């Protein structure tokens, strides 16, 4: 089904809700209204006060046109020194929650607990304390792409030694901030970090190991996440009472030809190689999806590999990974049409193993700042329902969703707000019609920021940042004003606007 599913309302709901209009509905009480950021993308102060280098410092300083105009996060939004300005934005929106990440190498310059940078601890204490003083609940990501360079030098996510290093770092953070932080994300988007960082080499650390690097990195990320969850569970949960999860990004996949069995299967494989890769082991049985194991094994064999390129978990590891998330943290941006594609060439890669090709529907609008971001709000509803049905009806937070504008981005972003409004309508349908346990929604991002390889050319912020001005002023887009209105009403309100 490739059309707007809202037209099939009657199939999905009792007749009593046929006339139900999401514009009139309120969000559930205590719904978490948030915005999200990540350390490297906003903080700047890349070597301030004893911070150690991360793989993103190295990657951007190497130049080589891998990032738009060789831009860096050296200064970014300056949030390391301008935190009070960010807080003003958060208060202006009336957010109930703010998601941000800790820079591992700001806290532990070489990635290990051998040396703790007190200035880094002070900075995050200031952020957390002022959020709490203003009634804003922090959601803290331990690791959002910026691995300490020293750990990368020892093999990074491809080395099993990272599991212990991550666990020690996580324990340090739980011990240091856990009396105040109750919502934790261990790792942000392992899929993106593994595939773009260790297979395609498009993101830091820029490793190009097609067909093996991403599987190995992801394998260790899953084990590291599970180790940190168990540490929280054993040592901190009783006294701190918080929740720990991992942020998984996923597209929604539609078969290119809905009547083709091959395309239907390919769409399922797209989900398996994207969301289920991580969610099946963590939420279900401790192991990779069966279809992933069989595909990669078969293709590896055809390529003459001695064994499957997908690493295996031991029975003990499976037991340790299974059930290690206290809620489902979903980052959603886009939907893809998927066509079956026979494996054609011998070059191994994740996408070749998947034997599926993605096609963008030309009728879908594309966010002006990101060529990959086709705007498909109804895909989010279907994805939420899929998660409910596949992963035993978990509590879900949408920890990222957003639309970019290209620079120069107009402050009057009426079109972009329309995308947000349509998305919020789909969320209401997911909550009230599909009965998904959705507890919160975080817009990516609070501020325009360093959008990885796109640098400052792609603007996801609710607040515009003028990167040309040394004061780095933040100015609300129209979307910020509209979002504040939605938050204060806890609903969309048809009549206003
Ligand atoms: C997420 N893709 O990354 C990240 O969590 C954010 O740091 C980032 O700024 C945001 O989405 C917007 O890009 C992604 O190529 C990076 O499909 C790339 C993709 C998706 C998400």
Number of helices: 17
Under CATH at level 1, the class stands as: Alpha Beta
Helix content: 40-55%
Q: CATH superfamily, please?
A: Glycosidases
Uncertain runs are 1-16
- Ligands, deduplicated: 4-nitrophenyl beta-D-glucopyranoside
How far do the termini sit from each other?
32 Å
Mean residue pLDDT: 95
Task: Look at the helices and sheets and give the structural class.
Answer: alpha/beta
The CATH architecture: Alpha-Beta Barrel
CATH topology: TIM Barrel
Rg over CA atoms: 22 Å
Biggest sheet: strand arrangement: 1-2-3-4-5-7-10-12
Q: Based on Cα principal axes, name the global outline.
A: globular
Strand content: 5-15%
Q: What is this entry, summarized?
A:
The protein has 497 residues and is an alpha/beta fold. It has helices spanning 9-12, 39-42, 55-61, 83-93, 104-107, 118-133, 149-152, 161-177, 190-198, 213-240, 261-285, 290-302, 315-321, 350-354, 377-390, 414-432, 478-489, and strands spanning 32-36, 97-101, 137-143, 183-188, 243-249, 252-255, 328-331, 335-340, 356-359, 396-400, 405-406, 438-444, 458-459, 463-465, 474-476. 52% of the residues are buried.
What does this structure look like?
It is a single chain. The chain is α/β, with parallel strands linked by helices. The chain has a single domain, classed as Glycosidases (TIM Barrel, Alpha-Beta Barrel). Helix content is 40%, strand content 14%. It contains 17 helices and 15 strands. The strands form 4 sheets. The protein has an 8-stranded parallel β-barrel, surrounded by 6 helices. Strand 14 (463-465) and strand 15 form a beta hairpin. The radius of gyration is 22 Å and the shape is globular. The protein starts with 8 loop residues before the first helix and ends in an 8-residue tail after the last helix. 4-nitrophenyl beta-D-glucopyranoside is lined by residues 38, 41, 188-189, 192, 249, 331, 333, 372, 400, 444, 451, 460.
């Amino acid at each position: 089904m490739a059309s707007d599913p809202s037209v099939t309302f009657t199939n999905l709901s009792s007749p009593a809700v046929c006339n139900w209009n999401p514009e009139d509905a309120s969000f559930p009480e205590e719904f978490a209204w948030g915005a999200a950021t990540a350390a490297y993308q906003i903080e700047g102060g890349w070597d301030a006060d004893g911070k150690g280098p991360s793989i993103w410092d190295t990657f951007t300083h190497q130049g080589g046109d891998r990032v738009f105009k060789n831009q860096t996060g050296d200064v970014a939004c300056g949030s390391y020194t301008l935190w009070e300005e960010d807080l003003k934005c958060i208060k202006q929106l009336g957010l109930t929650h703010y998601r941000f990440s800790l820079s591992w190498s700001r806290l532990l310059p070489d990635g290990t607990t051998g040396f703790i940078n007190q200035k880094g601890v002070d900075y995050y204490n200031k952020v957390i304390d002022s959020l709490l003083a203003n009634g804003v609940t922090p959601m803290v990501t331990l690791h959002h792409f910026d691995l300490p360079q020293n750990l990368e030098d020892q093999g990074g996510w491809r080395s099993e030694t990272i599991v212990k290093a991550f666990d020690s770092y996580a324990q340090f953070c739980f011990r240091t901030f856990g009396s105040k932080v109750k919502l934790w994300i261990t790792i942000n988007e392992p899929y993106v970090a593994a595939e773009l960082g260790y297979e395609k080499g498009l993101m830091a650390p820029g490793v190009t190991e097609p067909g093996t690097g991403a599987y190995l990195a992801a394998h260790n990320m899953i084990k590291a996440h599970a180790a940190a969850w168990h540490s929280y569970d054993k040592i901190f949960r009783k006294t701190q009472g918080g929740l720990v999860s991992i942020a998984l990004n996923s597209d929604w996949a539609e078969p290119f030809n809905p009547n083709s069995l091959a395309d239907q299967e390919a769409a399922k494989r797209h989900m398996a190689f994207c969301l289920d890769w991580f969610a099946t082991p963590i939420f279900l049985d401790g192991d990779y999806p069966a279809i992933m194991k069989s595909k990669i094994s078969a293709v590896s064999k055809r390529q003459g590999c001695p064994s499957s390129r997908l690493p295996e978990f031991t029975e003990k590891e499976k037991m340790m990974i299974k059930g290690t998330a206290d809620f489902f943290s979903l980052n959603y941006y886009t939907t893809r049409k998927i066509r079956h594609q026979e494996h054609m060439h011998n070059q191994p890669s994740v996408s070749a193993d998947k034997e599926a090709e993605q096609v963008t529907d030309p009728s879908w609008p594309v966010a002006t700042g990101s060529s990959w971001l086709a705007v498909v709000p109804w895909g989010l509803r279907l994805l939420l329902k899929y998660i409910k049905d596949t992963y035993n009806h978990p509590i879900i937070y949408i920890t990222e969703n957003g639309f970019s504008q290209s620079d120069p981005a107009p402050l009057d972003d009426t079109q972009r707000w329309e995308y947000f409004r349509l998305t919020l309508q789909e969320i209401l349908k997911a909550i009230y019609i599909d009965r998904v346990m959705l507890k919160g929604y975080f817009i990516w991002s609070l501020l325009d920021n360093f959008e990885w390889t796109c640098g400052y050319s792609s603007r996801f912020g609710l607040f515009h940042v003028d990167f040309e001005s040394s004061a780095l002023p933040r100015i609300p887009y129209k979307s910020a004003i509209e979002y504040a209105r939605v938050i204060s009403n806890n609903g969309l309100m048809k009549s206003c606007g």
